[in-house]
Amino acid sequence: MPNITFSSPIHKDKTVYAVAGSHTQTILKIAKDNHIPIDFSCEDGECATCMVKITPLANHGQRTDPMASRLTDKELVVLREHKKINAEDIERMRVEDVSVTPWRLACQMILRDEDLLVEY
Ligand code: FES
């Protein structure tokens, strides 16, 4: 199971070992369960309050290539509204099946089996 390191300029970094069954949980749920103070409001992918920057980490905490997990439809809309992605990015993600942005909505992103740095 993955380690999730939550990092903020105003809070101490905290690394959480995601337990079995967490593959159905969002980053926000894991943060809340571990008392990580990520801001949130709607919890439904509408407001962008929970926007975080995600960096996949290889073994030993080294940064690795961007992960290929798909953004949800709600993330595509909200990230475009906030100019974190554009129409070309969306098309590239659709055609090449890659993620072109580190920005995600913590209330929408489901954890996968990879270590992550989550900046909030
Ligand atoms: S809390 Fe509103 S988009 Fe995540």
TrEMBL record:
<dbReference type="GO" id="GO:0051537">
    <property type="term" value="F:2 iron, 2 sulfur cluster binding"/>
</dbReference>
<dbReference type="InterPro" id="IPR001041">
    <property type="entry name" value="2Fe-2S_ferredoxin-type"/>
</dbReference>
<dbReference type="InterPro" id="IPR036010">
    <property type="entry name" value="2Fe-2S_ferredoxin-like_sf"/>
</dbReference>
<dbReference type="InterPro" id="IPR006058">
    <property type="entry name" value="2Fe2S_fd_BS"/>
</dbReference>
<dbReference type="InterPro" id="IPR012675">
    <property type="entry name" value="Beta-grasp_dom_sf"/>
</dbReference>
<protein>
    <submittedName>
        <fullName>Ferredoxin</fullName>
    </submittedName>
</protein>
<dbReference type="Pfam" id="PF00111">
    <property type="entry name" value="Fer2"/>
</dbReference>
<feature type="domain" description="2Fe-2S ferredoxin-type">
    <location>
        <begin position="2"/>
        <end position="120"/>
    </location>
</feature>
